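Here we describe the complex-level prediction in full. Unlike the single-chain runs in Section 2.1, the two entities below were treated as one system.
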Amino acid sequence: MTINEKQDELIEEFEYLTDWVDKYENIIQIGKELPLIDEQYKQDKYLIKGCQSKVWLYPELRDGRVYFTADSDAIISKGLVSLIVKVLSGFSPTEIRNADLYFIDRIGLKEHLSPTRSNGLLSMVKQIKLYAIAYDSSLLNR
Amino acid sequence: MEVNTENIVKQFLYQGEPVAQQFPALHQSVYGKPLIYFDNAATTQKPYSVIHAISDYYSTINSNIHRGVHYLSQKATEAYEVSRNTVASFINARSSSEVIFTKGTTDGINLIADTFGSYAVNEGDSVIISAMEHHSNIVPWQIMCGKRGATLKVIPMNEAGELLMDEYEKLLDETVKIVAVTYVSNTLGTVNPVKKIIELAHLNGTPVLIDAAQAVQHISIDVQDLDCDFLAFSGHKMYGPTGIGILYGKEEWLEKLPPYQGGGDMIKTVTFKGTEYNDLPFKFEAGTPHIEGAITLKSAVDFITELGMDEISAFETGLLHYASTQVREIPRVEIIGNAIAKTSALSLSVKGVHPYDVGVLLDKMGIAVRTGHHCTQPVMDFYCIPGTVRLSFAVYNTTDEIDRFTESLQRAINMLV
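The structure predicted for the assembly as a whole is:
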């Protein structure tokens, strides 16, 4: 599946949830599928800044693909980071850095993308892209 | 506290109608649910009288004040000064020259920290604040102490969220140049014994600044009775416009303190050799002020006066007790701040649940609360929690809204654990 196919799948899944509370119920469920970060990486170094809650994100490059593990002390933030990881984990750095994450708007989470929002969805996306850019340039330089 | 919730007034009536009818912003749906606004300690909604006054100002007398000889300027100046007089009598100041228009509470505290610092604070001196201050009543003093080589001392509090008065007395020595304490804690809702705090400071020869940002809309304030030296509050937390606030100062102090900012309106004469400053209160109002805000603050004060401060206090205390009783029934919920004297703010912690999660879900259920540290990080550190979910009440809230909140909170907790 491509990044966009994964996004479309999520859009379809959320389409049927018209009540906002149900949408968030689903985000909480998706949080339960998040590949959890190893406890040893729950350090400030892997903390995403700009969240009212704590969100840790750990990247790993294996065979030219980036895999993410994460966790949060808040359940909804865990769901939000899980959404992003679901869409972007397992792709090449180039695919990740070039990804247009249109699904965030389409499933109704656009409000979370404003820089002043305290849940840091924007910071999560930024951080993932930064990791991808770093891997991309290190791969090119080899 | 045992409270008989049957006697609590369910809603505040104004001219026979629920007072909420006066607040247009309350009558809307968010995420498909009727809005319940419980974030009043952050800012209150505005009644029609204030909204109309803002529109009227710009539609009729808009012009700069204290300068023009023309008709509109005189009208605007007159309205500006009438508002100052209204505020002066609202807090029972001796004279309106003790009432300075500021941008808000933070601005007022910064004004005093800065000017008082350069007037009276030197190396080795100290300033007393309390453990439950808003960052606005911590940081300006830290900055000033840093500049002047002074120390910041903190009155500790107990687990209930009450200041330890014995410890306060011990802190009061000859090094203390000023005491700055909040009247009501924005996080815990504690009403501090400010009159006693002022009395003790004065016995030590020390002036006191009261942060009344969370008090002025809930408790009747008489600056002469309190005998405070300075008192600061904001318009937007008392049904008035944003960007306008009041700093009260005793005339004898304001006369002594140097100006805060230089500019127009605060001068009598200016030459390149020097400047003669204007009289009070203009000495502290440099530049074109927030004219519309200052003028329409009068409408907010009039609104409160018309409803009656004592009636508002009694009603809101009823809401607080009702809500406290209701949330205690919910498993996992703990009230943070259990002072005997409390008003209007109710902070909650849910065992095993992050306050952010509760806030997001309540928002989606149409309920506006504040989550986080409420600009009081030291208070969160004291209780070792990342933040709280805070409800804060205003005169338009109702017991029915509290019932809906309680159900929604229960639902949110069920989703999260």
